[in-house]
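Team,

Forwarding the record for the chain on the shared tracking sheet. I've put the sequence and predicted structure together so nobody has to dig through attachments.
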Amino acid sequence: MRRKKNLPELPPDGLSRRDFLKGASMAVSTGLLATPEAGAAAQEHSPGVLGPGAVPITLHVNGTSHNLKVEPRVTLLDALRNQLDLTGAKKVCDRGVCGACTVILDGRPVYACNMLAIEAEGHRIETIEGLGTEGNLHPVMAAFVEHDAQQCGFCTPGFVVACKAFLDKHPNPTREEVEQGLGGNLCRCGTYAGVREAVLDAAKTMKGGRANG
């Protein structure tokens, strides 16, 4: 299962750190060339600058609202792990590459390391902690156990979350669709075969649950 580039759902539509830095450098360059009148007009229409100190935000995670104070540079991943103690999303590459930090934002998978916490305000966030418990596993979790779709475990939470988001939108996937749809998550241990079988098995279970419901 190789990672596919330019997937429509990853990275998130929000401002990435790369775009933020690119925009900041353009703003500085433009400011050096702008006239005083242009600068005054831009300042008049500016929404204001946040930071550098901590600012209050509210994150809606797993059905609960949390009031936090974070510096604007803090990523959603760090806010989840360091302030809310939701450590299921793993900080592995921290570059928006491996998918170990995947969470669900308004129904779509995003890299939490590639999104600022302040961007996530006003959105519904789901993490691995919100998908199931030890005595009540989500079908994707149960299928991962059944098909031994994990080894070291660092990538597993991100894979499970990405699989859940994928199956919510593709309830009857083919094997090829599963491989392409989960191309944004990497496994250094190489358990891709087990992951594919787990997703296909979970799709059947979830489909049966919808039919019975």
